[in-house]
Amino acid sequence: MMSATLSSPHARQAMGELAPHVDGPAIVDAVATGARVTVDWADGSRGHFPLLWLRDHCACSACRHPLTRERLFVPLSDIDEAPTVTVDDGVLRLVWNDGHESRFDPVWLFQRRLEESRDSSIDPLPARRPWAAGFRPVRIAHRDFLQTHGEHAWLEALLRDGLVLLDDGPIADEEVSRLAGRIGPLRATNFGARFDVRSKPNPNNAAYTAIGLALHTDLPNWRQPPDIQLLYCLQNEAEGGESTFADGFAVAEVLRESDPEAFRLLAETPIDFRFQDEEHDIAIRAPVIQLDAAGRPLEIRFNNWIRDTLHLPLERIDAWYGAYRRFWQRLHDPRHQLEFALQPGEMVAFDNRRVLHGRKAFDPSTGQRHLQGTYLDLDLLESRLRVLSR
Ligand SMILES: O=C(O)CCC(=O)C(=O)O
Ligand SMILES: [Fe+2]
Ligand SMILES: [Zn+2]
Fold it and tell me: Where are its TM segments located (predicted)?
């Protein structure tokens, strides 16, 4: 399937259809200067647009499919000859040397003006914010989540903080699936699309026992572990069973600061993760802290149950264990941990590739504890927030 490459709702709209209520300065002047067109707006701003960029972003029905709005034009050749440039009624009109005509809305162009050494993305998504000391998660009431403003606030907090709470929900089987289904299809894994967390007679996973769970991320043995985990509490009467969380990115930065060599080892050493039961054997080799191209944490894989045999050159084994221990200790340091007991009707949602989760042991002889869980893809959360932001 072709994918739409545009990141803003306005980008979907061809020049001619652009909604007239979108405010912004008018174009007062435009001239072709060498390999660029320079545009001046009424508020004094100026933008420079390379010819091929303008040709590539033509929104006419030959260059973008009139129904899907996906790009049809392919930028394979350079454009050496400047177009004829006019400003008609505030609209930039270019006629290329082959006679093709492109029209650009002033606000669309203003929002996308290019600057030297700066990416001019206009995505409305919030930046990630590391947990500071005393971090308390945002809480959204279930009834508000069912309204646009509440869902918007829930999504924003989840993308920014990596964790958000919903409260005052019904004690209803499958409510977690109904809430998740508003955002997108549930991400299925070897544990199903929706799973029940309670102590089971024949568990294939530590979560399905009553033991305490140290901080971990789910399914780091998958090439693409689930992005977002939702846990909805239906019953929590047993003694113990409090939930624990830590911001893996923030704690990785603490480790980088205090112990750069440990950080480097965890970031640069791929290790094996593997889950096996009767039907599955799912394994991957990846580092505990994966960094992006700029050296910032991109993903944490941390799950001691399914860490497989450590295959490293002999001389690096002890150093790796030392680094792992130091990261473990910092993650479990009470200063970096969030702890609370989920109440029936509450749901916690968190970024499983950033935030680690765990729980205290509980005593099943003192009462029932039952959570229902599922996973979602981050792409669909981001999509939902963009749609709600239109
Ligand atoms: O029991 C809990 O609170 C969490 C269980 C768990 O780690 C999971 O379902 O992934
Ligand atoms: Fe888990
Ligand atoms: Zn065109």
Answer: none
Does residue 74 form part of some domain? yes
pLDDT in tens, 315-345: 999 999 999 999 999 999 999 999 999 999 9
The model's pLDDT over 365-383, given as tens digits with 9 standing for 90+, comes to 999 999 999 999 999 999 9
CATH of the domain at 20: 3.30.2020.30
261 & 323 share domain: yes
Task: Find out whether 350 and 239 touch, Cβ atoms under 8 Å.
Answer: no
Distance of CA 193 from the midpoint of ligand 1 (Å): 15
Q: Could you tell me if residue 98 is inside a domain? A: yes
215 lines ligand 1 (CB under 6 A): no
* Domain that includes residue 66, residue range: 9-111
102 & 143 share domain: no
Task: Give yes or no for residue 371 CB within 6 A of ligand 1.
Answer: yes
Residue to probe by mutation, ligand 1, list 346, 359, 362, 370, most atoms within 8 Å of CB: 359
Instruction: Give the mean pLDDT of 252-260.
Output: 98
22: confidence class by pLDDT, cuts 50, 70, 90: low
Structure tokens at 354: 């950033």
* CA pair distance 235, 345, nearest whole angstrom: 8
Total number of domains constituting the chain: 2
Within 10 A of 101 (CB to CB), how many other CB atoms are there?
13
Output the CA 57–ligand 3 centroid distance in Å. Answer: 8
Same domain? 104 vs 145: no
Q: Which atom of ligand 1 is nearest to the CA of 359?
A: 3
Residue 353 CA, ligand 1 centroid: distance in Å: 15
Residue 291 resides in a domain: yes
Q: Is 197 in the pocket of ligand 1 (CB under 6 A)?
A: yes
60 CA distance to ligand 3 middle (Å): 4
User: Among positive and negative, which fits the CA dihedral 58, 64, 66, 69?
Assistant: negative
Neighbours of 262 (CB within 10 A): 21
First to last CA, the chain: 25
Which amino acid is located at 276 in the chain?
Answer: Q
Helix and strand numbers (H, E) in the chain are 9, 22
- For residue 126, being part of any structural domain is answered with no
> Residue 236's domain is classified under what CATH number?
3.60.130.10
